[in-house]
Design a protein that fits this description.
heterodimer, A: 122 residues, mainly beta, B: 108 residues, three-stranded antiparallel sheet, globular
Chain lengths: 122, 108
Amino acid sequence: QITLKESGPTLVKPTQTLTLTCTFSGFSLSTSGMGVGWIRQPPGKALEWLTVIFWDDNKRYSPSLKSRLTITKGTAKNQVVLTMTNMDPVDTATYYCAHTLRFGGYESIDYWGQGTLVTVSS
Amino acid sequence: SYELTQPPSVSVSPGQTARITCSGDALPKRYAYWYQQKSGRAPVLVIYEDIKRPSGIPERFSGSSSGTMATLTISGAQVGDEADYYCYSTDSSGDLRVFGGGTKLTVL
C-alpha cells in the first residue's frame, strides 16, 4: 500500500524560503519508473502542478516557477524535499506530494498525500 | 503554455448521467487522467489513460476520449459523487504537465 505524507511549516513570512518534506512508504524511489511530485492548490482554486523527481534523479519543473523551485531526494531513502524561495502571499496553498509512475513516455499521478496548508503572511 | 479547459460546473439529478468534458489540443496524442476531490480532501484518481478505472473505483465511473476532448462519465450519479473533478494531461511533447480548471459536480 502506497502512502505519502507532507510535513513542514504551516506559516512562512514573505521573502522566506519554504522547505517541505514528503515521507512515503509502499514503494522505493530506487525502482525504475517511480517518481514523487508536488502539486499545490490555493484556497478555493484549482490544482497546479509544480515539480517531479524520478528514480534516476531526472527532475522536471513548472516553467513559471522553475527559478524558485528545487526538488531533491532526502537523506532518508523514503523522503523527497521541496524548496521554494522568495515566498509571497499568493503562494498560500495546500501543498500535496504524490506518487508518479513513469512508463513508456507517460506519467500517472496515482497516490496523493493528505496535503499541508502553508500560509504566507507577515 | 498549454491549457486544459473544463466547464466550471455540471448539475444532474440523482440517477442521471453526468458528463464532464476536458478539452486540450494535445489530447489526441496524450492520455487524460481524472481526479475526484471532495471538500477538504486530497484528490483521488478515478480514471487513468483515458479509459481505465483503478481498483476500488465504482463501475459507474468511465472515461472516453475523442479528438481534442476527453470525457468523464458518471452513470447513475449519486449524491455522494458531489465533488470537484479535475482532468490532467501534458502537452504533445510531454514536457508541460497541467491540470484543468476543475468542474464542480452537483447532484440534487
